[in-house]
Amino acid sequence: MTDDQFADGILGQMRAAPVISLDASSRVVVMSDMHLGDGSANDDMRDNGELVTTALERYYLPRGSTLILNGDIEDLQKFPYGRIRSAWKSLFSLFDHFAREGRLYKVYGNHDADLLEWSRYPYPLHAGVRLERGGRSLYVYHGHQASGFFVKHNDLSGAVIRYVLHTLRIHNRNTRMDSNRRYGVERKIYEFSRRSGIVSVIGHTHRPLFESLSKYDRLRYAIEALCAEYSKADEPRKAAIAETVALYKDEFRNLGRKDRKNKRAPGLYGRDLLLPCLFNSGSAVGNHGATALEFESGRIALVYWFEEGKERAYLEREAGPSSLLEGTRFRRVVIASQSLDDIFARMDLLA
């Protein structure tokens, strides 16, 4: 699939997509990649199920947020729909509640695309959802459309997952696409977004991105900024900088060991000035918690939900203090936040 074919396909989807206007009172949350199964040990969502259910029920639902489920919610490549629905009754009850109030949009991904063939599925299915602000567009879609493999061979992929990985009890979160394929998907979507002036909001790769940057890149830039500040700082500030850089370095090295190819790359997309046109909500099945993207008061934020006592050492240095969801043991922290108007202005200036 060429870049032009991909762009034509996404622009065609956008024209048919439902539209949500983002104004000062709008609240929207995007979650993706829940990979709901049958509740067994081979269910990717099993560890984070209570966390995500609580966040939806105790935080997003009472705040009046609109919920966009951005693909790969039910894992139909591993489990029958009936067993999934039975195992996750409380979560589907919440989906039903959002839907009754007109606050649910269900986008399909490669793991739940078979739902398109079901006439009895309870929620309308969309290829994507368009968010509009000040005449500019953000398009929420799963992102598998940028992978020629998934577009052409999704049935084969499903068979491998169902009959090989599922049989061997190997989780999807442990078999994510390799670096070349993952970065290929991200680069294709980034180039489309850059050329079209559209902000893409995706899932699929399970890797959170904010303003086109991964956590690896954000840490690298933060370390560089702290090092530049060090020589001009007073002694107490120098001590604080040294401690913070040590924490960041540890996390940076951990990420580098997982992805040597990214560590050697001059830039994620081969450009010195990145346009902030690509965002990824990450996934709900992370090993340490769940990520999501929030739209509120004209801003976009990447947030991280986790169980109290299980936060990682660098987190509060990078993102600031977390807040405990009252009456629960779960915490929410804002990893990054930016004004949508500023994002569009930077896209125009840097394009």
Polypeptide structure, described:
It is a single chain. The chain is of the alpha/beta class. The protein has a single domain, classed as Purple Acid Phosphatase, chain A, domain 2 (4-Layer Sandwich). It has eleven helices and 13 strands. The protein has an eight-stranded mixed sheet. A five-stranded mixed sheet has the order 1-6-7-8-9. α7 packs antiparallel against α8. About 7% of the residues have low confidence.
Q: What is the helix content? A: 40-55%
User: What is the highest CATH level, the class?
Assistant: Alpha Beta
Q: Main β-sheet, in a few words?
A: 8 strands, mixed
* Radius of gyration over all CA atoms, rounded: 20 Å
* SSE succession: HEEHEHHEEEEHHEHHHEEEHEEH
Mean pLDDT: 86
Assigned CATH superfamily: Metallo-dependent phosphatases
Q: Tell me the CATH architecture.
A: 4-Layer Sandwich
Q: Which percent band covers the strand fraction?
A: 15-25%
Short summary:
The chain is an alpha/beta fold. The protein contains eleven helices and 13 strands.
Task: Record the SSE blueprint.
Layout: H1 3-16, E1 19-21, E2 27-31, H2 49-60, E3 66-70, H3 81-87, H4 89-100, E4 104-107, E5 125-126, E6 129-133, E7 136-140, H5 148-165, H6 179-196, E8 199-202, H7 215-230, H8 235-258, H9 260-264, E9 278-280, E10 290-296, E11 299-307, H10 315-319, E12 323-324, E13 330-339, H11 340-350
Parallel strand pairs: 1-6, 2-3, 3-4, 4-5, 7-8, 8-9
Antiparallel strand pairs: 2-10, 6-7, 10-11, 11-13, 12-13
